[in-house]
């Protein structure tokens, strides 16, 4: 009954029907469709069939509201305030949710989020609606803001990427995607007729930006590592020499953690006749933007080079309870993009209007606590653990790849979707990955691997399954399928 406490307390609505709230309630649950083994008429496993059938099963259904679980919002009963039942039932829902989050946090490996943080000191601020709407550098009329923290964080990043205080502009975004949307927008404002170039392994937000801004976009091939293929880049630049170039350079691709060679990208542009006033480079450092500066031998991201903007996600390597990010660009570019907004008494140069004022304080807090040295130590630990994990996978006969500058370990996709969900692995085609962040310890990697090895015995014991071939994703030398081992 809508409005009754019972519904809110222990029932979930499933497409109209209600269902009992399970004890191990998983709020992130999705439809579970096990992939059956594919055995040919002759009883022999056909690798291609296996792959295409699995792909078919993995397809995402568009245009359907996949609405497996929801916590219904119900109208309070007349006597709710007297009985206090509603408060109690909501408290029980939240307690269950908290337990589910604790469990899900323990079994998380696939997304590049550092879940290890302690922000108890900031809980006193949750009573405030902190909003940094407008430009970080201009005081607006809304006084409940955290611009002083925001600018402190921006200064820190500008120093990291070597841009003087009086030469940069930036803001704390809602996520890495917003940084990319802003970076590409600045590029397009600088070169309204520019063509956007991005490797095919760039994050989807780059291609979304191209669609949103109706820009011509040229996809560049990648090497096996996932890095941009500068031979193909050169060939494509030569076909469009009459138009300026706006380039997305990946400081860590989403799936393989590949770092594009920024210096080679710049050289390719110069070699094909693009002078510095005819190109704009946005560096998408969502993933490794904060790790690269601490990796020896890594190509340096610096505004001393002819780049236009850099963005990074704040909730990834740094670790933050809410999505956020940082975008830094050159002040000279942003002046052309911004407009005055009278009712704010500020200037508008951001993608969003209202902006999360809590996020800068969380970032400020962690940067202060850890500092450059703290991050350096964590980066080294992540890279060490990633190497350990990749070596253990290979020793166990599982095809795997780890790019030199990366903590993203790519390996054969597990055959069981339930197992993938349990460990929250991100998968693409026949590969899965684990992104080793500071909270991913050797013990956690060992637990995962031991469970994976046990599962593999059951998947492969009767011969219905075979390890996927991942040669086309990671190269023959990293593939340990029946053909390549
Ligand atoms: C390379 C890259 N760019 C951009 C993004 C988007 O970042 P966010 O999820 O913070 O929007 C991601 C996300 O994983 C990414 O891997």
UniProtKB/TrEMBL annotation:
**Catalytic activity of the protein:** L-serine + H(+) = ethanolamine + CO2
Please state which protein family the record places this protein in.
Belongs to the group II decarboxylase family.
* One GO process term, biological-process aspect: carboxylic acid metabolic process
The UniProt keyword set, sorted, is:
Decarboxylase, Lyase, Pyridoxal phosphate
Q: Which species is this record about?
A: Lupinus albus (White lupine)
Quote the PANTHER family the UniProt record gives. PTHR46101, SERINE DECARBOXYLASE (PTHR46101:SF21)
Which positions carry N6-(pyridoxal phosphate)lysine?
A: 316
Required co-factor(s) are: pyridoxal 5'-phosphate
Q: Which PROSITE patterns match?
A: DDC_GAD_HDC_YDC
Q: What is this protein called?
A: Putative histidine decarboxylase
Q: Which domain of life is it from?
A: Eukaryota
């Amino acid at each position: 009954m809508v409005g009754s406490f019972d519904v809110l307390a222990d029932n979930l609505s499933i497409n109209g029907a209600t269902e009992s709230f399970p004890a191990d309630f998983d709020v992130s649950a999705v439809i579970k469709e096990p992939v059956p083994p594919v055995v040919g008429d002759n009883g022999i496993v056909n690798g291609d069939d296996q792959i295409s059938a699995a792909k078919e099963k993995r397809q995402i259904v568009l245009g359907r509201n996949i609405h497996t679980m929801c916590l219904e919002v119900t109208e309070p009963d007349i006597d709710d305030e007297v009985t206090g039942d509603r408060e109690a039932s909501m408290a029980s829902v939240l307690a269950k949710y908290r337990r589910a989050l604790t469990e899900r946090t323990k079994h998380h490996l696939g997304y590049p989020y550092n879940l290890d943080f302690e922000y108890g000191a900031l809980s006193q601020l949750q009573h405030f609606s902190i909003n940094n709407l407008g430009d970080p550098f201009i005081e607006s009329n809304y006084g409940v803001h955290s611009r002083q923290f925001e600018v402190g964080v921006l200064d820190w990043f500008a120093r990291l990427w070597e841009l003087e205080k009086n030469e940069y502009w930036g803001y704390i975004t809602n996520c890495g995607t917003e940084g990319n949307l802003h970076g590409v927008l600045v590029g397009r404002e600088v070169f309204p007729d520019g063509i956007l170039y991005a490797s095919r392994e760039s994050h989807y937000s780059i291609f979304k930006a191209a669609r949103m801004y109706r820009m011509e976009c040229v996809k560049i091939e990648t090497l096996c590592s996932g890095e941009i293929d500068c031979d193909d880049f050169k060939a494509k630049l030569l076909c469009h020499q009459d138009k300026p170039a706006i380039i997305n350079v990946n400081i860590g691709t989403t799936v393989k953690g590949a770092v594009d060679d920024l210096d080679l990208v710049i050289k390719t542009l110069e070699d094909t006749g693009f002078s510095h006033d005819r190109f704009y480079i946005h560096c998408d450092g969502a993933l490794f933007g904060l790790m690269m500066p601490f990796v020896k031998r890594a190509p340096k991201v610096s505004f001393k080079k002819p780049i236009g903007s850099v963005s990074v996600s704040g909730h990834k390597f740094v670790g933050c309870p809410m999505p956020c990010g940082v975008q830094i660009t050159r002040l000279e570019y942003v002046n052309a993009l911004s407009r005055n907004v009278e009712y704010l008494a500020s200037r508008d140069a951001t993608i969003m209007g209202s902006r999360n004022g809590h996020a800068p304080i969380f970032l400020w807090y962690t940067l202060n606590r850890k500092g450059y040295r703290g991050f350096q130590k964590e980066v080294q630990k992540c890279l060490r653990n990633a190497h350990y994990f990749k070596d253990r996978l290979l020793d166990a006969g599982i095809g795997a790849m780890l790019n030199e500058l990366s903590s993203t370990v790519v390996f054969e996709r597990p055959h069981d979707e339930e197992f993938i969900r349990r460990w929250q692995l991100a998968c693409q085609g026949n590969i899965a990955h684990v992104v080793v962040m500071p909270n991913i310890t050797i013990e956690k990697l060992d637990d995962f691997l031991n469970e994976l090895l046990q599962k593999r015995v059951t998947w492969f014991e009767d011969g219905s399954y075979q390890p996927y071939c991942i040669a086309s994703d990671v190269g023959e030398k990293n593939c340990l399928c029946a053909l390549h081992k």
